[in-house]
Amino acid sequence: MISILQSLSKTIHLSIVLAILLFIGLFFSGGDWAFDQLFWSWFFRYLHVLAGIMWIGLLWYLNFVQIPSMPKIPDEQKPAIGKVIAPAVLFWFRWAALATIVTGLIVATLSGYVHQAMTLGIGSGGGKNTAIGIGMWLGIIMAYNVWFIIWPNQKKALGMIEVSPDEKANSAKKAMLTSRVNTLLSLPMLLTMVMAQNLY
């Protein structure tokens, strides 16, 4: 077991196997199962939650751990963050954001409320459609920020794209402030998502 846990790849593979075994046991033990719309809605909701945990978890890691810690790190050690850790974080961060949005839109489509949610429940009675719609729009804004503001500016700040020292500093500040906007929006976004699933 130790050899499995010492490898992230082996750990994730074992986690997937355990999840599949649990799924088979729970899904098929009821006897009344089918790969119908309900199944696919559940499946994509599961992927949506997984991607969302990765995305918001990394957003909070960046804002609660990495950014506040950078001034405390000696200058000679900062390249390890900028050249190794930050690019890896940003890779998973941006693709998890995209996966969260895509799987969320698939869930809304399969569940039949995508139009009502995207129009914030206007003309369809509000309530759940308004709540989930606000969450969806906040998520879309946050994903836009990741792909079109944070990522392009982080490439400059981390030296992946050569720019002047002034532009590098400005890009780092713009990326940080936009990341803070996403942190600001994250709690309302999560609130509306959970409200829509549990209060209506």
Give your account of this protein's structure:
With 200 residues, the protein is an all-alpha fold. It folds into 2 domains: 1-33; 34-198. It has helices at 2-5, 8-29, 37-69, 78-110, 114-118, 128-157, 165-198. The termini are far apart. The mean pLDDT is 94.
Biggest sheet architecture: none
Q: Taking Cα atoms only, what radius of gyration do you get, to the nearest Å? A: 20 Å
Total number of distinct structural domains? 2
Work out the helicity level. over 70%
Count of helical stretches:
7
> pLDDT below 50 for ≥5 consecutive residues: which ranges?
none
What class do helices, strands and sheet pairing give? mainly alpha
Mean pLDDT over the full residue set: 94
Give the overall form.
Answer: flat
What's the N-to-C terminus distance? Answer: 44 Å
Number of strands: 0
User: Secondary-structure element sequence?
Assistant: HHHHHHH
Roughly what fraction of the amino acids lie in strands?
Answer: under 5%
Write the layout of secondary structure elements.
Blueprint: H1 2-5, H2 8-29, H3 37-69, H4 78-110, H5 114-118, H6 128-157, H7 165-198
Helix pairs in contact: 3-4, 3-7, 4-6, 6-7
What is the gist of this entry?
By secondary structure, this protein is mostly helical. Helices cover 80% and strands 0% of the residues.
What are the salient characteristics of this protein?
200 residues, mainly alpha, 0% strand, 80% helix, 2 domains
